[in-house]
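FAQ: What does the model actually see?

It sees only this:
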Amino acid sequence: MRKWKLFRLIMLVLLGMIANNLVAQGIPISGTVLSDDGVPLAGVTVTVTGTTRATVTDSKGKFTINANAGATLEFSYIGYSTQTIAASTGMEVRLSKGESVQMADVVVTALGIKKERKALGYSVTDLNAAELMKNKNTNVINSLAGKVPGVNVTQFSGSAGAGASITIRGGNSTSEGRQNQPLFVIDGIIYDNSTTVTGNTGTDGLSRSNTTYSNRIMDINPEDVETLSVLKGSAAAALYGARAADGVVIITTKKGSEGRVTVNVNSKISTSWANKLPEVQTVFGPGVYSSNGVLNTANTYSSWGAKIPSDSTIYDNIGNFFQHGLVYDNNVNVSGGSKNGSFYLSASNFNQTGIVPGTGYKKTTFRFNGEQKYGRLTLNANVAYSNANIDRTLTTAGLYGSGVGSMQSLYSWPLTYDIKNYINPDGTQHRIYAGTLPLESDRDNPYWIINQDNLTSQTRRFTGGISANFKLADWWDITGRLGYDQYATNDYTFIAPGSAVAPLYQNGRLSKDLYDYTYITTTVMSNFHKTFGVFDTHLMLGTTSEDTKTSSQNHWGYGFTIPGTISFNNIPTANKFFTDGTTTKRLVGVYGEAGVSYKDLVYLTATGRNDWSSTLPVENWSYFYPSVSGSFVFTQLLPRNKILSFGKVRASWARVGKDANVYATNTYVNPSITIGSFIGVGNQWAAGNPYLIPEIQNSWEVGGEFRFLNGRIGLDYTYYHSETQNQIGQPRLAQSGGFIFSTLNSGSVLNRGMEIALSGKAIAQRDLSWDVILNFSYNQGRLGAFIPGVAYFYPTDAQFGTVKAASIPNGGYFLGMTGQSYFRELDSKGAEIPNGRYQVDPTTGFYKINANNPVVGNREPDFIGGINNTLRYKMFSLSFLFDIRKGGDVFNGTEYALVVNGLSKQTLLNDRQSVTVSGVNSVTGADFTQTYNANQSYTVGSTTVSGYDMIQRYWTNYAANSYNFITSVNWVKLRSLSLTYDFSGILKNQKIIKGISATAIGTNLFTWTNYKGMDPEVSAAGGTGGSGSTGIDYLGVPAVASFTFGINLKF
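And it is asked to produce this:
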């Protein structure tokens, strides 16, 4: 009921704004902004004086803004003197370079407060709409890759609708139930970006690792984004409270401007393809050798058999399986306004066909933003709706009952069998070993999985906000805001009868899952701004409350009574199950900010916030965190010169709190389970802790901003350090207490790093310009001391092959990996020699395996960076972005699986006629060298083993060593390449069409890397918390490259 009241209130306000704005329109003012030497200037801010109406110039220096007759326009640009000029149609404005650049540009900071960049004591990176559209992606996170120092973006896979993860300056929380992604705020409203996995991993096998999920920031339309600001440090984000310890991404959507109605239409078509596929051997066919040398070619999918005869057909099953993907992307927006108000209305439709047959992603969005002024009162309202649908496939095996998945089956299918022959005339699955291999031991054909099984998901989302600002005096105003965010996800999973799954489900399985998220927030904030002589002061006081509720329902059952009828009504009552659960959370905060500046020379700001969180025990639920930051514009004291145009040093310190997950303080029973007429409950896996305290992060950063040659060259440098203490985690301790996990406060996470951004205008001529932005950053994440007994923090869904993603306490890596390895020879003290020879177990004749899962890698890069280029020649604009990474380990789990199945090209060593084991005897320490030949026999213990089997055993032993599949990865990616031509010059006499341009975009066209797998940018279990699964490559859908062509029209 409360939801519908809020909905009606927001819609009522919006309709009122539309009515007011349609009755009084201004006129469109268009023009061009040039430098004093005639070079078009892109990104110049154009503002209607005395209003909030603003726009920026495009790549040709052109702009259009609506304004009343007699209005004046203000033009501001870094490195150039600000000018105020009377508005006129067709105006040409020339900006002169200022003798002293004062960094007057404005950025959006915490709580939507706009500040001059020179006043900030911390690092903020902002991107405008034009920059985001250069490599537009339906997931706006992907558009940030390579562009923002300190920001690491990883796409989950190449599947249609695949999500992505983003971290800023490393992760801060170790437990898998804790997210390390930044807070997203859209138009002042916190916007949930969870990657929600529904269902029950213990019954339906679904987890983050064996199918594709979307993160919820994908629900917005990237075309609606006006600016995006990344707040990196705690001082920048502290005012947002407990949810901002991992940074904040602030998105401001487009608004209307004063003048007549403007219509923008753009349409794009895109084709995509698998960028790189696994390489497999085509020499040996299916089969397995027994210890006596007999080749068994029945009931096996392994390819350890004899050579494939030259007259046999070899099928390129992997290459033929993937198709070209296709995207249709259509957008339209309408905007306008009067002197006292404006509106913006948009609609979009995105339709994607994936490279995996039968998969796809569709999204429809609508947005309305409005503003209306009534004297001293300004009302703002926005509402957005999205409907996203995804058709996906199981990719790998789940925990139970879901079969092996399409990718796992595809990458192991014998090459002498045509994978397209998957179904019999009677509709049953065609099986290679029908009648001889039990169904639960068999595997499904990938085409059966994508055509017969069915995994779909639908998410409907509604967000809205209303804010009112009342100006009591020139120096005092009050703002109130009401925000609402709600979405419901419906997942549907159907496993067809006759599938190779657990016996219980071989007659079919059906599940329907519902997840509902609702967030309501209210904020009241008062701002004071006064100038006292040479001192400029401001004070902000505010309070906020947040209510979050989630509910989930899981219906599932198995064993259809009547074949062909897919319905819960067709499942026996005893085989139907139902679970549900609800969580609620409330957070209340009060906060304030005070700042003072002296002669535009020195700026000092202090903030404080106190939160009360319902997720913490009553005695600990209140926690306070302050911050202080400052900047010193030292060039104000220097003689004006053209070399160092602007210089500023800055520093900040902050303490930020982070509360617990819901219901972590007590031990609860799991949601009710209904089986027929029986209702049961059971304890949850994790023991609660009634003594929890919040995590506390202390951080500091120092840096500087410099502009040279009147702003032609810019440099931004930051060094930072943070420590997050009192980690709230759920490590795996001894299960003698009756629980798998124990919730506790212990230990810390430390991050330190550096960020550099260098910008420059390499060429600046009338018809030709070249802008370059380089960024570089590194982060080193480590764990402090934890209580005894806590060895590693493992994300459950990030354990593949022989490795596990892990965070390593007591000085270890935050993005570590543990796994099996070979023992190395020992020194005189009995310690392993780091680069010593491998130990050989004389009882097996192969290398001795250390199964205690030591640390085998660090997934964190040594550094990441990007080179962003924009060239403009007359009506052409060319942009290209290189994404760079040095170091960081990646586990090639796909190659591991190929080796195990005998399909890896590595297994062609010596034409499979011999292998050599060389090292030291693990018992005596003596040298050990043994060559195993296929046509000979060997004694292992008391058993005689054929050479063919010994060669197979060699590769099994090889696969057990994680290091054989780990690479310290380097890459340079051509992340995007776009070319735009502006046809506006031929439309001078047009009264209807005001602008037209065509764009061609290539994405991920080239990757130069030392990684031998499909793509080193991987996250096998996307969305997993804690250290996540970045750097784990395991049987996923290949990454894609794409080409897009688009047309943009303006009316």
